[in-house]
From TrEMBL, chain A:
Protein family membership: Belongs to the ComF/GntX family.
Species: Fictibacillus phosphorivorans
Protein name: Phosphoribosyltransferase domain-containing protein
Signal peptide (UniProt feature, chain positions): none
InterPro entries named in the record: ComF/GntX_DNA_util-trans (IPR051910), PRTase-like (IPR029057), PRTase_dom (IPR000836)
Domain Phosphoribosyltransferase intervals: 143-235
Automatic annotation (TrEMBL), chain B:
Top-level taxon of origin: Bacteria
Pfam family, one: Helicase_C
UniProt keyword annotations, A-Z: ATP-binding, DNA-binding, Nucleotide-binding
Gene Ontology biological-process entries: DNA recombination; DNA replication initiation; double-strand break repair
Domain Helicase C-terminal positions: 353-498
GO molecular function, one term: DNA binding
Ranges for domain Helicase ATP-binding: 172-324
Name assigned to this protein: DEAD/DEAH box helicase
Length: 236, 498
């Protein structure tokens, strides 16, 4: 018997030969919580990785969503972020879990996502530097940890902490898309440019909303010498 | 966070690392500090009254106090405040000083940016109130106590029934001393009014009073009532999301969870619905109650359906007990009627309802009276609601514990905008709606315990003008709980009015 990492209820793992031989994914959530997570599947946007099935057909053009086309049309942002892939749909349940992680500070809960990160996303994370999106010094102190860094450990045992956040801005989650886009100064800074030269970089963050955070980070990385930058987030 | 320790006036003292400018001192996590002694109280220090009001009787984290670390530490240096470890090591693992949790699966560790330790252990049981970890001290007040007001008059001219009167008197008599009392009052006996006189007496003696209940709904319902009957008293409600938590309140209405934040605060502790989940279930909540009371205290337990353990203690006279077996309006409790309705599980699985139930629903819809229909699980809620909607044309809705619109729906039901409300056992307590009938579909299911059924039956006939509501248990073979619940109600009805 195990206890669910999220709701703490006891549950029985379903028995299988795969699990017995240690081949399958050992879930850390109970069936109920696991069932409320929606893995992103099916047709997705080539760039941002969101599922086409979840938004109206008219916002789609070929294999891209409207938001990504808007990004790519802008010469400053064209091709900055190679692609993004996300594990789960940002539904009410996941919102709750991420809030518990970030705002209550329950760091342990991130481990619930490690099994999926380790297996299904192995192909993406295998070759390249895994870099978590940093927090500003103040916020990092306040929270006690950086959730993106914890998440990055699910993709790589040695995440490279090569980015730094310069200023302490307002939380992204409290800004609108327009506000996020008008900020002029890039909040990120590269710490050790030498390690970046000619590398493929995989950025890790908790949520992809408009994609501006990831693109700002990607931009400084490319300017500092990275070959190409893609990203992976827990939720989309 | 990290602290440094150094010797000052022959005493080992500590300070948060960024307040001391001495590079030769090594900063360590709070839990790794050598043992240090509390600085003596400096009587000439001008302490912050605001801080005293917020912190007195509590146990809080730095993050919970709206003051700078400098200011807080200044109070420590002058002996007005104490730092104690949030998590401490035990023989077998860890214990959380705030919630008392000792189960190893409720502890986890993380690489902490504050104390730079790779594995800073924290408690996951009370994480909803902010993280208590090895490196975070809990702060409590050691300065002069708050002088509570003695001008606290009760503004209430209602009449107590004879049963209420007797219980009220027992409480009043107990207030000055120490001890316990169980008030075993049937649903609808008017428990709140029983408390008024005793609370008034305690407040007038300058004592601090707390009413704790397992559920937020009850806090929200009680707080305005108590505010209106004690207009001179500062009353605060504590629940997740409350904005009254910084008030220096003499009378506190709190969920049992929020009691984790208190420490030796209350002289009078009233625990409402002691038998209700999660209080009865969760040892750490019971720990919270014992932590929150002053060493000299009086505890009053309220329940309509005390647990067997409590009943036994009352019978053996270990726990003083007073019973109110009549409702405030003097009428007996409606006795549930059992209706055999075949294999309801199969019927529902086939998207149908048992015939006797359908007949009742149709009649109920025609009568224009409101009804609450209880089902055994959330998964059944939608199916049953949809089928009922096909049979009747009145407004039907459903509500469950995690329904984001729970508050609104219950309010709509009160205002007669919903006629039939289908629900799970969450609404078995506290909801008081006049002119109401209740039905339990599948009353033989395990979730319907004796106390749950008694509470459900207790929803009906609450008002003086409609004291004889209908209570129906639709079942496929009587369960022991059903039989016991009916017996319990009949027994209460037979008891002499004391």
């Amino acid at each position: 018997m195990s206890y669910c990492l999220n709701c703490h209820q006891s549950y029985m793992e379903t028995w299988s030969w795969q699990a017995f031989l240690g081949l399958g994914i050992v879930p850390l959530l109970c069936q109920d919580c696991e069932g409320r997570l929606e893995l992103i599947k099916g047709e997705i946007c080539r760039i941002c990785g969101r599922a086409f099935s979840l938004f109206p057909e008219q916002y789609r053009q070929g294999d891209c969503c409207f938001d990504c086309i808007r990004w790519e049309e802008d010469p400053t942002w064209n091709g900055v972020l190679q692609q993004n892939r996300s594990l789960y749909v940002y539904n009410d349940f996941l919102k709750e879990v991420i809030a518990k992680l970030k705002y209550r500070g329950d760091a342990e809960i991130v481990k619930a996502f490690y099994p999926v990160a380790k297996t299904s996303f192995r192909k993406i994370s295998r070759n390249g530097l895994v870099i978590p999106i940093p927090l500003s010094e103040e916020r990092h102190y306040k929270r006690g940890f950086n959730q993106a860094e914890l998440l990055a450990r699910g993709f790589s045992s040695q995440p490279a902490l090569l980015l730094k956040r310069k200023t302490h801005e307002e939380k992204q989650s409290k800004k609108t898309r327009e506000e996020r886009l008008v900020q002029k100064e890039n909040p990120f800074q590269v710490i050790d440019a030498e390690k970046l030269q000619g590398q493929n970089v995989l950025l890790v963050d908790d949520v992809y909303t408009t994609g501006s955070t990831l693109r700002y980070a990607a931009k400084v990385l490319l300017e500092a010498g990275a070959k190409q930058v893609s990203s992976i987030t827990l939720a989309r | 966070m990290r602290f440094v320790s150094f010797s000052l006036n022959n005493r080992l003292t500590i300070a948060p690392e960024h307040l001391v400018n001495n590079p030769s001192l090594i900063a360590v996590p709070f839990s790794k500090l050598p043992s240090f002694s509390q600085p003596p109280l400096n009587p000439s220090f001008h302490f912050d009254k605001n801080l005293q009001h917020i912190l007195h009787g509590k146990s809080l984290l730095f993050d919970e106090l709206p003051f700078e670390v400098e200011k807080i530490h200044e109070h420590y240096e002058n002996g007005y405040l104490m730092y104690s470890p949030g998590i401490h090591k035990t023989k077998y693992g860890y214990a959380c000083s705030r919630c008392g949790n000792e189960k190893s699966r409720w502890f986890a560790s993380f690489s902490c940016f504050r104390c730079k330790s790779d594995s800073c252990v924290y408690c996951r049981n009370c994480i909803m109130m902010g993280r208590v970890s090895e490196c975070t001290p809990l702060l409590s007040w050691t300065g002069p106590e708050v002088e509570w007001s003695k001008a606290n008059n009760l503004l209430w001219y209602g009449q107590l029934s004879s049963g209420q009167q007797a219980a009220s008197q027992r409480f009043v008599d107990g207030v000055e001393g120490e001890g316990e009392l169980l008030v075993w009052a049937v649903c609808g006996a008017g428990k709140t009014e029983v408390l008024f006189k005793g609370i008034e007496k305690a407040l007038k003696l300058g004592l601090r009073v707390c009413i704790a209940t397992p559920r937020t709904d009850v806090v929200l319902e009680l707080a305005p009532r108590l505010k209106s009957v004690f207009p001179e008293t500062l009353v605060a409600s504590y629940y997740g999301g409350s904005d009254e938590r910084d008030l220096p309140a003499q009378l506190v209405i709190s969920t049992t969870h929020q009691l984790y934040r208190f420490k030796q605060a209350f002289n009078i502790m009233i625990v409402d619905e002691v038998d209700a989940f999660p209080y009865s279930y969760d040892k750490t909540l019971q720990h919270a109650v014992t932590q929150a009371v002053h060493p000299k205290h009086f505890t009053l337990y309220l329940s309509a359906t005390p647990s067997n353990r409590m009943k036994r203690a009352a019978k053996q006279e270990v726990l003083p007990c007073v019973k109110i077996s009549r409702r405030f309006h003097g009428h007996p409790l409606p006795v549930p009627k059992m209706v055999w309705s075949g294999e309801w599980r199969k019927r529902i699985a086939a998207k149908k309802l048992p015939a006797p139930f359908v007949m009742w629903v149709k009649k109920q819809a025609q009568s224009g009276r409101r009804a609450m229909i209880f089902v055994s699980s959330v998964s059944m809620l939608d199916t049953v609601t949809d089928i009922i909607k096909k049979h009747v044309s009145v407004i039907v809705d459903r509500v469950h514990a995690e329904d984001p619109k729970r508050k609104e729906k219950v309010e709509q039901f009160r205002q007669e905008k919903i006629q039939l409300l289908i629900t799970t056992t969450i609404l078995e307590r506290g909801v008081t709606v006049p002119f109401l009938d209740v039905a339990v579909l599948g009353a033989d299911h395990d979730v319907f315990s004796e106390s749950a059924l008694v509470q459900i039956a207790g929803r009906a006939g609450r008002s003086k003008d409609d004291h004889d509501g209908q209570v129906l248990f639709f079942h496929y073979g009587k369960s022991l709980s059903m039989v016991r619940a009916v017996k319990h109600i009949k027994h209460m009805n037979r008891e002499d009015v004391t």
